[in-house]
Amino acid sequence: MRGIQLFAANRVLQGIITTIFFFFFLITSLHAQTTISGLVKDETGAPMPAVSIKIQNTNTGVSTDQNGRYQITVPNATAVLVFSYVSYVTQEINVQGRTTLDVALHPVENALDEVVVVGYGTQQKKDLTGAVSVVKTSELTKRQVTTMGEALQGLASGVKVRGGGRPGSEARVEIRGLKNLSGTNPLYVIDGMITTANRDFNPNDVESVQILKDASAAAIYGSRAANGVIIITTKKGAKGPMKVQFSGTTSMQTTPRYKLAQTEEFARLNYMAYDNAGAARQDLDLSQNTDWQDAAFRTGNMQDLNLTFSGGGESGNYLVSGNYFKNDGTVISTGFDRISFRVNTQGTKGIFSIGENLAISNGKADEISGNPIADVVRLLPTIPVYDAANPGGYGYGNERRARTFGSNPVAIADLNDSYNENLRIRGNVWSELKPVEFLKYRFNMGYETSSDHYAHLRKEGNWSLNQEFQPSIADENRARFQSLLIENTLSFNKEFGKHAVNAVVGQTYQRDLYARISGMKRNLVPDGKGGYYSELDQGNEPQAGGYRQEAIILSYLGRIEYSYDNRYLLNAVIRRDGSSRLGRSNQWGNFPSISGAWRISNEKFFQKNWINDLKLRASYGRLGNSTTSADQVGNSSANYWDYLAVINTFSTIAMGKDQLIYPGATQVALVNPNLRWETLTQKNFGIDATLFDNKITLTAEYFIADTKDVLTAMPIALTTGHDGRPPIANAASLKNTGFELSLGYNESSREFKYYVNTNITTLKNKVTSLGYGRNNIFVGNTVTQVGQPAGMWYVLQTDGLFQSQEEVDNYKNAEGTVIQSSAKPGDIRFKDNNGDGQITNDDKVVVGSPWADVELGLNLGASYKNFSLTMNWFGAFGATVYNGYHSLVDRFDDNSNYRAGIQPWTPENPNTDVPRMYYGSTLNSRGDTDRWLESGSFMRLKYLSLSYTLPESWLKRVGFQSGQVTLSGQNLLTFTGYKGLDPEFNNTNIYERGFDNFSYPSLKTYSLGLQFGF
Amino acid sequence: MRRNLHYIIIISFFTLCTGCKKDLLNIENPNTPTTDVFWKTEDDAQRGVNAIYAMFYKPALWSRWIYFRLDLTSDEGFSKSPWVELGDWTRFQYVNYNFGEGNVFTWKDTYKAIFRCNQVLDNVPNIEFANQEDKDKILGQAKFLRALHYYYAALLWENVPLVLKSSQPDDLPLQSTLPEVWAQIEKDLKEALEVLPVAWDDANLGRPNKGSVNAYLARMYMQQHKWAEAKIALDYFFTGEGAGRYSLVSNYQDNFTHTNENNSESVFEIQFSDVNKTPEDADGPSQIMSSQRAQFFAPRSIGWSDGQARYWIVGEFKKENTVDGNLDPRLRYTLFYPALEADFGDKIYGRSWDWDADEAWFRKYARDYFRNNEDYYAQNNFRLVRFADILLLYAEVLNELGNTADAVQYVDQVRNRVGMPALAVNHAEALLGQDAFRERLKVERELELCGESVRWADLKRWGDLDDAGKVQAVAERDPDFKNFVVGKHIRLPLPQIEVLNNPNLKQNSGY
Fold first, then answer.
1. Most exposed among A173, A225, A266, B129, judged by the fewest C-beta atoms under 10 Å?
2. Does A24 touch chain B (CB under 8 A)?
């Protein structure tokens, strides 16, 4: 937030010198003068050391001390003091006779002087030639989130985030859309350690976040950067006495709910469905009226407590932080808690510096069981939650009274519970040697390890109709993950007159290891209290398993930045990577990039007062990818040896007179042995402008991204006999073109300060070729074909309902064949697109795209005196999505609950788009029609906060230096026509991106936060 | 000093990285052998062929869903499942051709099995064996099993692609016609017949022998009405090497329990075991080897009850008594029906009849004889072919070849085992002519083999689904056949996803 400590140190030094000069003048002059003193604070209310305070139009100045205090003598009562600090808005204040003057400084939005971490080095923001977003951590840390990714929503253009919702689930972050079909997350670099910012990482420790969005920016991470890079730097201590910061947040969460029928309405509709089908009605238990959403959902809550100690001296600094986070989910028997601890220290002696960052955390998640999001719909209101007559004591479907296979979520939560616990240690040690001013050698060793434990207990008892008998089962697995990173870099940084050269060369090596063992026992010993002795010594029929995974990436990198007279900037990067995950002849890849910028505003011929900065830039770069999403749990080879055909040795057969068990072995899964790098070639054209006294900032970019040989699972013919996830293939090539515009206005020189930032992203994706030389692939209700966006809807078209038998009889093709002869009034009319007189799969057509045309982010902020307000909006427009909820609840052929207020077709009520109720026939309920497609456009208030900075007078009395109270809310308002639970749903299957298959919805969160410093 | 130390560090690391050899990136998979180190030894060959048998245990094949196709789709069974789509696929209401449990999974598992066969047939010839006979036996088993899987594919979809080589990911095989599929099955079975033994030793009991091969040869010929060829295959059991090796067990129930498996009546069985209780469709360690048929077919509140028997079968059994004047004992072991307790004193999984008065469920392979519930781990071997079936097939072949008089004795053998009088006693009219005998034989097969997954093939073979009039007659026993469209529903639609993604495939006609 305060830039880099180096700058602060210089400021301190400058301050001391100026103070000495000032006192010298003070002694020698005999004018009658006024002394003014006061406190300078930052936007969070924390005291700011080393802020420069000058008397306008003089050379006189001082700076604030460690506690943010200053004292200055002014020549007269109308003197104007100028308060300035790097990356903060300079303030000019007339003394007006006051003797105390407290000032709060606010950071400059998109400050050009900002130092940006770009990977293996830093750059000033004004010198950037690639697309890099810097996320304001002041915004970030106010948010109540579990993971880092979630916190990024709405804070940077082109970065799309969908939170997990479930306690402990990880957000999905997509930078500049679909460049990688396998849907892997971006690369996270935390203090130089290449890793993932998963739920074990405490977002409160973040000092700064930069997002490398285009190929030229990310190229330094070469093969690992195809999905963008998020660089996170954790907080460091600053010079001075120990500072203590406390923050605490408590939140309440609610889940969106379906509007479902209660018993009375349900029974009326259900009887109608049976009557229409000529079936005998079920004997519904009308005495029950269960609201399954009440049974399965609850108000969730979160607590997040942080305590940070930091400080430092001349030659070193330290930071120690602790965090406790707890989340009880909105679904019963789900939760997550985390305890984390961090120590960051560094020291310098002469040309040598050393430092470390270390975080230890333990996270434990009580996992969701079954799919309550769907089960609350599948269960009928006439079923009781508890039913002593059933094994296990829970209510569920009944053949005579409630024919549904829906699972009782209360029963599953109790009878089939599991949790995951991870103890993670992550950190790095670095040392730097600066033999001469312009040369620096850095050695960085990162290490991460986690000890993972999964446990599952299946109690005896049932949760659905006619379920098979299962004894009690305990199963556990324990695993260890290790990742070692070794990096050596040498940087050169020197100016020769108007020429400035900054270069870095280096080598990196990273090795990942994962090993797991698992065990399972059945028929446990009951403990007499409704549970079991579930340690694996108990029980019988043991099973054990285990596997190991290993991968290595070896890389060489180099970068040169050159600038001439601050007008012409050039940046070139090359990285060479070798990956063990690829076919042996294709392990190495080269990833070059080049970018340039022209700062027009520094040209002599272009001096306009209203333009503070204007820069044009262009870049070209290539990135790679060798990993695929790890979605095949338990497959020990997936993701690590995708190119190796292996023998599955797990078949067992019974044979012989005594039915002894014999082993079998065979190849089960096919592979593509020649897997090669997925590459992304990106061209980027941008303009950056700062106008009207830095009040308006504008960034516009146009990019063309060609992704070749996307590494992902691609469906193959079932006749191959391949089993499991389809083999990883270089499955497709895609072209993404997009336009990104960020426009900001900020007014910070008055007492009422505000800013408005908008960002708009448009993105078009087009498949340019498919693996195995194919022209199309059909998956579910979608088709992905060359020349079109991926995953287009391919379904039958409906054409309203038949209102009368006459309409049925008159619905004929050109030859006069009645197309739907067996239909009855109230049934759906389908379009016979091929005119053959019948409705078959050949009538399916492409009807829509699951991709949004435009995404819009809107960030607003305002502050007045001690109050400040922040708002983030996010919207996506133009996607067509499949409403999985409607496709279940409006089927009528099967028993599930109905939507409250639904109006099915009846002769008396023909003006509806819902067909007649009909139990037991799928003809009206088929899933492969456009009946379930809807517009997925939405605009959502993702975040709203109101903060109040506590007055100093009050704080002093309790011994604090700073204090702030924040009230905030997430997902408070959504504007959408979509009728599912959440238009911002998440489907990781790239071919079915628009399919809302009961994914966990975004939650509404209300939070109260307190921050104190002393 | 410190500076020197750092130069050493720098130098050592740059040396280290130049020392990084190419093979640093070549990490061996420590978990399992790769294909290029396999298929080298006799043991590899043995394991390879064993893995084919493991396909019987997959849910879409013989542990679960195929019974829906063969038993429930026929006029013996039907579905009242609350899972309507599952039920629709037993009553010719095929809407979504990609429905997994009804169509795609069985198709996929069939080809998974064929891939395993093809691997053995492609790789084992290159392995050196000490004894050529052992090698031939392994190849013979693979050929038999490939033929078996194609036989059921031919019954279900008819026009399936013939995949005869180990697959590659980009394979898009050509479609074959039904006669081409039959020809391939015939070729495989004939080659298997050459090399498989008349009988296996105790350790290998359960692997296909010449009897198993001849049984499927006969079935395959009979589906094509090649009666003379079928007779040659079946002669094996009566005048050939197999004569005297097979006999009917005295207790009819022994054909369906786990207590008397691989008995004298067994021609080919799937060897189920409850030793491994793991998830039902995983290729992981300790793979499941059991059947879930009983869990899916058991009466409501005991099992899923996704399938049950048509009640007309009860009436058919009760038309005739044993020579002692008792009810046909096969009724007792074939069905759960309302009067079971009254007629034979048996409860249903320990309960008295609790269901509708016109309902019945399949009792064969149910485990109520030793437990009061079901699960996914039934261990009773499924008898794919037993000698009683061979006797009735032989009778049918002889009748079709015009030798009705000879045929009668084989039917009588089957009746005699359960105490039923000779055909001549109650069914003299059936002995009068080929057509009358055929009609009686249809009933005899029903009474003896109900619920044993042969009925769908029988209906197809008899032509009972070939014209609307005949289908009407079937529909009187099983109203699901009112949905049956002649020429269309005689075969399943190919999975739509295959037709879309493989341009060489054409959807079956009418779909």
1. B129
2. no
For tokens 């009819």, name the residue: B252
B173/A403 touch (CB, cutoff 8 Å), yes or no? no
In a shared domain, residues A47 and A120: no
Q: Is A204 domain-assigned?
A: yes
pLDDT greater than 60 at residue A111: no
Q: Which residues of chain B does A717 touch, with a Cβ-Cβ cutoff of 8 Å?
A: 171-173, 498, 501-502
- Report the pLDDT value the prediction gives residue A8, as an integer from 0 to 100: 42
Q: Which residue has the higher pLDDT, A23 or A519?
A: A519
The CATH code of the domain that includes B214 is: 1.25.40.390
Q: With an 8 Å Cβ cutoff, are A652 and B54 in contact?
A: yes
pLDDT at A164: 66
How much is the pLDDT for B345?
Answer: 95
CA closest to A842 among chain B residues: B511
Q: Chain A residues with CB inside 8 Å of B303's CB? A: 466, 468
Residue A632: pLDDT band by 50, 70, 90 thresholds?
very low
pLDDT tens-digit readout, B149-164: 999 999 999 999 999 9
Tell whether A86 and A53 lie within a shared domain: yes
Domain membership flag for residue A145: yes
How many CB atoms are closer than 10 A to CB A256? 15
Q: Within 13 Å of residue B412, how many CA atoms lie on the same side as its CB?
A: 17
Domain with A189, as residue range(s), is 115-241
* pTM for this entry: 0.81
Lowest-pLDDT choice from A106-115, A708-717, B80-89, B111-120: A106-115
Judgement on whether residues B65 and B195 belong to the same structural domain of the protein? yes
Residues B452 and B419 in one domain: yes
Q: Which of A467, A552, A648 sits opposite B32 (nearest CB)?
A: A648
Q: Are residues A136 and A84 in the same domain?
A: no
pLDDT in tens, A979-1005: 998 998 877 777 888 898 888 888 888
3-state secondary structure of A449: strand
CA distance A509 to chain B (A): 9
**Nearest alpha carbon to residue B313 among B462, B83, B478, B464:** B478
Is residue A661 less than 8 Å (CB to CB) from chain B?
yes
In B102-157, where does DSSP find H-type helix?
A: 105-123, 132-156
The verdict on A30 and A54 lying in the same domain is yes
* Domain-embedded: residue B97: yes
A882 located within any domain: no
Q: What does the pLDDT look like over A322-345, one tens digit per residue?
A: 999 999 989 999 999 999 999 999
Q: What residues contact residue A690 under an 8 Å CB cut-off, 6+ apart?
A: A110, A112, A611, A612, A613, A614, A696, A697, A698
Residues B334 and B226 in one domain: no
> How far does the CA of residue B117 sit from the closest CA of chain A (Å)?
10
Interface probe with B: pick from A719, A725, A892, A918, most Cβ of B within 10 Å: A719
Query: How far is the alpha carbon of B221 from chain A, nearest alpha carbon, in Å?
Result: 25
Complete DSSP assignment for A964-991: EEEEEEEEEEEEE---SS-TT-----GG
Same domain, A141 and A231: yes
Q: Which of A224, A241, A258 is the last residue of a domain?
A: A241
Average pLDDT on A9-30 reads 45
Tokens 């003193």 identify what position?
A37
A649 touches chain B (CB under 8 A): yes
Residue in A closest to B288 by C-alpha: A652
Range of the domain at B108: 39-245+489-501
Examine residue B11 and state whether it is found in any structural domain, yes or no: no
Which residue, among A349, A659, A668, would best test binding to B if mutated, counting the most B CBs under 10 Å from its CB? A659
Model confidence pLDDT, tens digit, residues B198-214: 999 999 999 999 999 99
* Complex ipTM value: 0.91
Alpha carbons within 13 A on the beta-carbon side of B7: 5
Inter-chain residue contact B498 with A719, CB threshold 8 Å: yes
In chain A, what residues touch B209 (CB-CB under 8 Å)?
none
Q: Which of A190, A112, A109 is nearest to A147 (CA)?
A: A190
B34 DSSP assignment:
B
Q: Which CATH number do you get for residue A140?
A: 2.170.130.10
**Is there a domain that residue A524 lies in?**
no
Q: Do B273 and A659 touch (CB under 8 A)?
A: yes
